[in-house]
Amino acid sequence: MEINGVEIIDTYAEAFGIKVSRLLVTAATKELALTATTEATGYATSVIGCPAEAGIDVYLPPTETPDGRPGYVIMICQGSKKKLSHELLERIGMGILTAPTTAVFNALENPDELLNEGFKLKFFGDGYEKELEIAGRKVHSIPIMSGEFLVESEFGIKDGVAGGNFFVGGDSKMSALIGAQAAVDAISNVPGTITPFPGGVVASGSKVGCNSYTFLNASTNEKMCVGLKNEIEGSEISAAVNGIYEIVIDGVDETSVKKAMYEGIKAATSVPGVIEINAGNFGGNLGAYKINLKDLF
């Protein structure tokens, strides 16, 4: 099967379940909102080694936010409710409350349950905090040096999907990178999804376990390493592919992840020099979701 003349390998992406929360961060300017969301989603590429997976979902103009200011929606993901609760408290408290002019609202529709992390944060106000209502939402006003920090009392969480993925293979490293970046740009327009790795692009794809060292739970995916394709048996890289990058997607549900994969692959295949789209799976050892690339089209 080909899309825009690019071969789509007959394989599937293996994804897994994860707990997801979605927050809206507003500020006086778009730039200030972006600064706060960038801080709040830092060190969150993969739960293999990070305390969470997180990223910026979509930008919302002032006409679409509860307080009439520009804002960004972010997603924060973790494997359990307890760990996600901790990450919400830490990332809002240290990455957003500390940033100028910010406010935080729940942005997850139809949650499975609510966590009272905003209520917990109000105690930073040392008894001077107040309770407000903004656009029908219960919000805590916490006095800070520059004025006040506003945070909604409760944030929704739900069962989401993490690890949706595909590989962009190019005739050179640069064509593969440009294709991967085009994919990330397209996915950024799909609400309810994030690409948590740096700039959305994964340079160092991993596999479950390790062939040589028993103390590692994950290690380099040698079958998808360009530099090893002529040195190992079982390489999954075609002879013509000289550059490859991975896109990993987390989403609020499987439908959103599939939509993001579709849009990302379509964009990547429009880049000259991109010659192959592949995906990562581990024989069902990683997760319950199997997303066949050809089924997306």
Keywords:
297 residues; alpha+beta; Alpha-Beta Plaits; 15-stranded mixed sheet; two-stranded antiparallel ribbon; cytoplasm; acyltransferase; Formylmethanofuran--tetrahydromethanopterin formyltransferase; ForMFR_H4MPT_ForTrfase
Report on this structure.
There is one protein chain. The chain is α+β, with helices and mostly antiparallel strands and 297 residues long. The protein has 2 domains: 2-14 and 160-296, 2-Layer Sandwich (Alpha-Beta Plaits), CATH 3.30.70.520; 19-158, Alpha-Beta Plaits (2-Layer Sandwich), CATH 3.30.70. It has 5 helices and 17 strands. The strands form 2 sheets. The chain has a 15-stranded mixed sheet that branches. It is elongated, with a radius of gyration of 20 Å. The model has no long low-confidence stretch (mean pLDDT 96).
Rg on CA atoms, Å: 20 Å
Percent helix, as a range, is 10-25%
Order of helices and strands: EEEHEEHEEHEEEEHEEEEHEE
pLDDT below 50 for ≥5 consecutive residues: which ranges? none
The CATH topology of the largest domain: Alpha-Beta Plaits
Intertermini distance:
10 Å
User: Which CATH first-tier class of the largest domain would you pick?
Assistant: Alpha Beta
Q: What's the tally of helices?
A: 5
Alpha-beta classification: alpha+beta
Strand tally, please? 17
